[in-house]
Design brief:
The structure is a single chain. This protein is an alpha+beta fold. The protein has 4 helices and 8 strands, in the order βαβαββββββαα. The protein has helices spanning about 10-15, 30-40, 130-135, 135-160; strands at about 5, 20-25, 50-55, 65-70, 75-85, 90-95, 100-115, 115-130. Strands 1, 2, 3, 4, 5, 6, 7 and 8 form an 8-stranded antiparallel β-sheet that branches. About 20% of the residues are buried.
Length: about 160
């Protein structure tokens, strides 16, 4: 079963009821990190519980690109509405297989900081639906930990 999610604009990243922002320094240039983001097989190496990323749009990717992400507990369909090659992309969920959010948006920002290093800012903004609201601080803590762990796992992966 699919549960539709509301489309959002860039402003949602700062106005959403729930926001999570994580920053790390990566030991790779932005172009290398971006190539990894475009590789569907790389995501499961740094996001716990992610099984598969299937790009449902042909290359070259850009604004309007879509993909389906399969996690241990659910699947989501995503629509990319910002795409700046080697610098930034932003997507929102178009639907999920579990009704935990009304809207969810993720922003991936890569900033070169010299010597083959990149500052990565990972922002997730969401409007929870009733099940997530009812989970209260436990649900918010679980999401905060998931996104922070993913950011740190990416950093660790690129340090090897």
């Amino acid at each position: 079963m699919e549960f539709p999610c509301r489309a959002v604009e860039e402003s949602f990243l700062t106005t959403a009821p729930m926001r999570f922002v994580n920053e790390v320094i990566l030991d790779a240039p932005p172009e290398g990190v971006f190539r990894m983001f475009e590789d569907g097989d790389s995501w499961s190496k740094w996001i716990k519980g992610l099984k598969r990323v299937e790009w449902t749009s042909p290359k070259p990717f850009g604004v309007g690109t879509t993909r389906t992400v399969t996690l241990d507990v659910m699947s989501v369909k995503e629509y990319f509405f910002i795409w700046e090659q080697n610098k930034r992309f932003t997507f929102y969920f178009t639907s999920t297989s579990m009704p935990f959010v009304k809207a969810l948006c993720e922003d991936y920002l890569l900033e070169p900081i010299g010597e083959g290093k990149t500052k990565f800012t990972y922002t997730v903004a969401c409007e929870p639906s009733l099940p997530l609201k009812l989970s209260g601080p436990i649900g918010k803590y679980a999401l905060r930990k998931l996104f922070k762990d993913a950011t740190q796992a990416l950093q660790g992966l690129l340090q090897r």
